[in-house]
Design goal:
By secondary structure, the chain is α/β, with parallel strands linked by helices. It has 12 helices and 22 strands.
Length: about 500
């Protein structure tokens, strides 16, 4: 559809874009990225024919760009520029009808029935039909941008060129505009070329991305390859971190502000508060966590960690809302907290810090094994849901990768199982050695300080500390529980 071969273009004999080579297929949503001054708009102007080429050729549907007349080009290509603050005193429908100009014939270029049908259709598609008789100056920025998109689509183009289409639009309008454009690529086989400043929007909507750096191609690939930390940091000269989108299989980039480093506090029992109704670890700054808590499950940043004691016959029907209410009552923000529950006497809690080679972990465990079970045979019998009986917290003084968080959970779980087996804890239903309880919970939290720990398996320095710490603290917690059972406590 679009074939750019060896193109260089600029102003006053000064090249802004040099030696561009790429092809864009029909129906593709193609994004152009790059910092200010990298040549994005210059390249787009070259594709529209507004700037003469210094070198190379651009072909549209196999025909050189310069061989198109202005009317032929207008039928093939539509342009949606950055939103202008100027609003002329035209009605919405009149503005959209201007998109039919290239298709109108005759000296006076009167509109036809087909022109009206196309305009009505595009107004419906873009959601502006309800205010078609209002004037542009009466509309919001997002509504005006939809009008200009409708005008572009009314040209019935095969190619749509967009220069920062979501500039100055709020989140709702950004999403609805790009959803609509994406739908056009699928249903109408429309080819879209768009400049983006927002890397995350480009990732979500584009099939491929062209990353420019100082007027040259840095990378041309699908979003998963282009949006890698090393590429973005080199081109934009800023620290970023790649994250997975929670619902869509596309990468997302977040900036890492400078000057946000907290003091290097070691995580230990200084921050642990214990009373009759809860164990509360109050961190001196937010920690990055992965947990299975009732509140704060998954990955996030949290400051407060609560293991709340509830009665053995606690009604679990609305436990999440109940935990939120509990945190609020304690003047804790649920969005900054991880919350777990246990029916154990909290004096059963055991904690300890383990250190080696400049690395350290702080482990907190509450363990009751009256309902211990063997997970491999749990399918054979019904198990009642009861408040958690083995809750494991591992606070790490270190900087963990996402992989390391997962491995830390695996290492902790293996250490817990070994502790249960070495303490001779058995599933009362089968007599087998137990692997845990039906409602065990786990938390891995790190202060994210120091050199990156890519892994946390049992052969790594931090993994060794986790394995040792969870094993020893869990054994002591189980031993304390068993002693109190014998004493009738």
């Amino acid at each position: 559809m679009i074939d750019v071969k060896g193109v260089s273009v600029g102003y006053n004999d000064h090249k802004i874009v040099e030696n561009m080579n790429f092809k864009i297929d029909q129906g593709e949503f193609f994004g152009i990225l790059g910092p200010n001054g990298s040549g994005k708009t210059t390249l787009l102007k070259a594709i529209t024919g507004l700037l003469p080429l210094m070198e190379g050729t651009i072909e549209l549907k196999g025909k050189p760009l310069q061989q198109f007349t202005s009317r032929e080009l207008a039928k093939l290509v539509a342009v949606l520029p950055q939103q202008s603050t100027e609003s002329f005193s035209y009605e919405v429908k009149e503005t959209v009808m201007l998109g039919r100009y290239a298709h109108q014939k005759g000296l006076f270029k009167g509109k036809t029935e087909w022109d009206s049908e196309v305009v009505d259709k595009t107004m419906e598609q873009t959601g502006i039909a309800s205010f078609q008789h209002r004037y542009l100056h009466e509309l919001s920025g997002g509504e005006r941008q939809r009008v200009f998109l409708a005008q572009a689509l009314a040209q019935e183009p095969e190619i749509l060129l967009l220069d920062e289409p979501t500039n100055h639009l709020d989140l709702s309008y950004q999403k609805s505009l790009l959803d609509l454009i994406r739908t056009q690529t699928i249903e109408e086989n429309l080819t879209v070329v768009a400049i983006f400043h927002d890397l995350n929007l480009a990732s979500l909507y584009c099939d491929r991305l062209l990353l420019l750096d100082k007027g040259k191609t840095k990378l041309l690939h699908h979003p998963e390859e282009v949006l890698k930390e090393e590429h973005i940091e080199e081109v934009y000269q800023t620290k970023v971190q790649k994250q997975a989108h929670p619902l869509v299989a596309k990468p997302q980039m977040v900036i890492v502000p400078e000057g946000q480093e907290s003091e290097d506090f070691l995580l230990d029992k200084r921050y642990l508060l214990l009373d009759e109704e809860s164990i509360h670890f109050s961190a001196p700054f937010p920690l990055k966590c992965m947990s299975s808590g009732i509140i704060g499950a998954g990955i996030g940043w949290y400051t407060h960690f609560i293991n709340r004691r509830v009665s053995v016959d606690y009604d679990c029907s609305d436990y999440k809302e109940d935990m939120k209410d509990y945190l609020i009552e304690k003047q804790l923000d649920p969005s900054l907290s991880v919350g777990m529950m246990t029916a154990l006497d909290l004096t059963n809690m055991v904690c300890d810090r383990f250190e080696s080679l400049g690395k350290s972990v702080f482990v907190v465990v509450t363990a009751g094994v009256g309902n211990a079970m063997d997970v491999s045979t749990s399918y054979q019998y019904d198990i009642d849901f009861k408040p958690g009986t083995i809750n494991t917290w591992v606070f790490i003084n270190g900087n963990l990768s996402d992989e390391a968080y997962i491995e830390a959970i695996v290492t902790s779980t293996e250490a817990k199982v070994r502790a249960l087996q070495d303490m001779g804890v058995r599933d009362r239903r089968t007599g087998n050695l137990a692997t845990g309880t039906p409602t065990d919970s786990i938390l891995i939290a790190s202060n994210q300080k120091g050199e990156l720990e890519p892994f946390a398996g049992p052969i790594t320095p931090v993994g060794k500390l986790i394995g040792r710490g969870v094993y020893e603290v869990t054994k002591r917690a189980i031993g304390r529980y068993m002693e109190k059972i014998k004493e009738g406590g």
